[in-house]
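User: Could you write out the 3D structure of this protein bound to 5'-deoxyadenosine? I've included everything you need below.
Assistant: Certainly. Input first, then the structure.
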Amino acid sequence: MKKHRLVSLPNLKEAAGRNLSKPIDYTKVNLQASSFLSSWGAGKTFCIKTYGCQANVRDSEIIKSLLLSIGMVEQDDFLGASLILFNTCAVRENAENHLYGELGRAKENYDKNHDCIIGICGCVMQEEFAVKHVLKHFPFVSMIFGTNNITSFLSLLNDVVQYNQSIVDVRSNSDLVPEGFPEDRTGRSSSITAFVNIMYGCNKFCTYCIVPYTRGRERSRKEENIIAEVKCLKEQGYKQVTLLGQNVDAYGKDFGDEYAFAGLLEKVAQTGIERVRFVTPYPSDFKTEVFDVMAKYDNIMPYLHLPVQSGSDAILKKMNRRYTREQYLSIVHELRRRLPDVFLSTDIIVGFPNESDQDFEDTLSLVKEVSYDAAFTFIYSPRPGTPAARMEDKVSMETKHERFDRLKALIDECAQKRADAYIGKTVEVLFEKVSDKDKTRISGYDRHNKLVHVKGDSSLIGTIRKVKVTESHLYSLIGELLDD
Ligand code: 5AD
Ligand code: SF4
């Protein structure tokens, strides 16, 4: 096995101590492949496995478009592929464990063909202990890079292939807002809906969360580049964009403009693209100006994912969430007053260190009061290097699981009631694909981002049609296509 060339190793302390006064670098990156790499890549196959959030999905799309640009061909399964890449998620421990299982399977590929390149990128590789673990237990991995190194992906791959090296290059910090990624649609996962990064990183440092260490300081893309990307997507026939940021309300703070997100959202809506949505707002930073823009433009989807994390003030404080239960509830009331039919979803963590019965009851009562359309629930997972991982925790795993089940049952009950209210209504559905389970059905999303299935064929893909809802399920609606 080759010895790894350690260009740079991650460092969580360094990642936390970033210098916010350093200027941001908006350089247009050079993504030109060497002629060596282009002739190596022609006709070879690759497989990318992506875990985690939309930021990772978008990063994988960019890597995919770079690999296609050197003539490589994508395949779904990694068996037999010349390049296997894992784009990892570090938010919870089970995603990390899953990676180690998958690496065992990838090794079978490597054993059959030593020319096969196995690479790992994404948030897990920003953790020094994880990189050490991979180097020790999976030495056949020949390419390790981080979330801040995608711009140098092709030159890294070139060195691995041309000089037969194994390389670790993970920058802990970045002041870069990269521009100039391929604009063609080849790398995108869909030809109908597209993710558009509006900013990178997070400065919030919620005590349980690893993201500020793995994705770096908040840095916003320039408005003109975002609008140009949306216009380009519209010209290519895309119907929907999702604006991405860990904390979209912070958009523009690095230019000194606290209210920039509302302005950006309005300009995106004015491009006339059929549908716009965004993830993720942070409750106490969410400005009512954004509600006004949402109410003003029909093409902004009445959909909001507003993570609450807990209904207990004591736990919110320990989480370093910068709002109280009352403040969160008043934002929700204001939102529903202005956008009565808004679809509201959230994230909730149960079993945060020393969460008491009363803290948990407070979460249940908040869920009842808000009555969410959907919620993602997680059992707290300690992330080494974060402050919460050092907190005392006397709550047993059994109690955490019991609480998780009770919370899930309540959320499902609320969500089902809200879904039932759609029955008999007419919704507008953007059709995206033939249903996986039933090939006579076609599936899409209504303006609230509710999944809808109807009888129909692939000719409907990419069209927006009216549908009468006849049946409701927890995660989807069934309906009949109406004549236009
Ligand atoms: N344990 C459990 N859930 C977590 N999340 C983030 N960090 C952790 C953790 N350490 C959840 C939060 C966040 C979502 C993306 O993941 O609810 O909003
Ligand atoms: Fe993590 Fe909190 Fe930032 Fe969200 S706002 S990415 S939960 S630190």
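Residues 4-169 form a domain with the Rossmann fold fold (CATH 3.40.50.12160).
User: Perfect, thank you.
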